[in-house]
What does this fold into?
Amino acid sequence: MVYICVRPMKHIHTIEYTIIEHYNELDPADQKLIDLAYSAAKNAYAPYSNFHVGASVLLTSGEIFLGNNQENIAYPSGLCAERVALFHVGATHPEGIIDTLVVVAKGNLIKPEECVSPCGACRQVIAESENRQKSPIRLILVAQNGRTFVFDKATDLLVFPFGMS
Ligand SMILES: [Zn+2]
It folds into this structure.
């Protein structure tokens, strides 16, 4: 008789990110991306949540795509700003390599100092975009008071994405 001893092993996952007190400390190119995301947020269709989210996507080619949340009276039919922007890239530039994704918001759903972090569904989509292009996507998440969180790769926000672990 052979006994196989399988001992549980604990694993530790760590992530690194940078917090900047205000996005005006970032370099001008990043500030421009943030300003564009705020301009996109103004066009959000958010009559139900009144929470206006904007996203900007910078490709390595230098092209920039924008998105904002698009709500619907049938709530699940709406879509988040991040996915609107990423799917626009996928639909029009399927070979495009995403360098940076910025997310900003305005509204009372979260406190001014809280990080505007993508929902779980968006994290899955961002992670697959990163996996698809085989290079990291930098994330810049801006709180409403200007505090900014920078992640060097999207998968830091989703440890075990579906289908990619
Ligand atoms: Zn989302």
About this structure: Residues 80, 82, 118-119, 121-122 surround zinc ion (CB under 6 Å). Residues 115 and 156 are 15 Å apart (CA to CA). The first strand starts at residue 17 and ends at 20. DSSP finds three helices and six strands in the chain.
